[in-house]
Amino acid sequence: MAKSNNLSLIRELVASDFKLRYQGSILGYLWSLLRPLMLFGVLYVVFTKVIRIGDGVPYYPAYLLLGLVLWTFFTEATLSGMNAITGRGDLIRKVAIPKYIIVISTNVSALVNFSLNMVVVGIFMVAGDVPLRWTLLVVPLLIAELMIFALAVSFLLSALFVKFRDISHIWDVVLQVFFYAVPILYPLTFPPQRIAEFISINPLTQIFQDIRWLAITPQTRTTENVFNSQIGRIIPIAIILLIIVLAWWYFRRSSKRFAEEL
Fold it and tell me: Which of 39, 65, 67, 80 is nearest to 204 (CA)?
């Protein structure tokens, strides 16, 4: 019964989030598709006509768009997750509601947008004659890894943001650094070996490159290739597990005082 109530509550919060987000917008939900597409258009021209980093990457349009869509999901999930508790302060003070449900609902909302964007990626893959391989069946497992990572970060940020409002500025800077430190725009063959090894420690690099290897082209350099061993996957996954434990501990400890601190 409690599980059913929680699912209903998540649906209500997600629906409410969508209504508030696009209220008064002419294009409404289409903005969730247009934002990554407009960014893709600009970056595609820059990296194929000006800097020409994408010249040696097979199926670069789909390669680039997939990276941007994955990145958009992570940023949207963590930014909305960070503001989840403070944004629902009135609800938390008035109703006895499981705090974790509020954070989960923001990530589910980001997941809905992500699903729509992945349809566009699929269209690009078909239009770009990207070969359909059986490895596509494994992609959902990597997307699940990304979702778990984003949710863990969201829990940690949401609890920290209640007490330390500077966290929003810090996370904005971190995201800006990650946008260029993670191989979203360029292939992992582009940076020198030592820098590639440092970049590959980031779980986002491991996830993005593995998904591209599975979905776009087996010529994609993965973190396993960078280290020439499974350590390229073990380290990022170990970092995710560490963040999960830290987020669970800190959120559980802090959630008891949310109503007082909001």
Answer: 67
Q: At what angle do helices 167-181 and 60-82 cross, to 10 degrees?
A: 170
The single-letter DSSP state of residue 188 is T
Q: Between the CA of residue 217 and those of 66, 124, 131, 142, what are the distances in Å?
A: 12, 14, 8, 16
Q: Token match 């979203």: residue?
A: 184
Whole-model pTM? 0.89
| Listed residue (218, 41, 221, 40) closest to 130, CA to CA | 218
Nearest to 142 by CA among 69, 80, 203: 203
| 76, 227 contact by CB (below 8 A) | no
In the numeric block, which tokens belong to residue 109?
Answer: 């909302």
Contact 60, 54 (CB under 8 A): yes
Q: Alpha-carbon distance 78 to 92, whole Å?
A: 20
pLDDT in tens, 32-60: 666 777 777 777 777 666 666 767 788 88
pLDDT, tens digit (0-9, with 9 covering 90-100), for 231-247? 888 999 999 999 999 99
Which string of b and e fits 22-34 if b means at least 16 CB within 10 Å? eeeeeeeeeebbe
Non-local CB neighbours of 56 within 8 Å, separated by 6+ positions:
187, 189
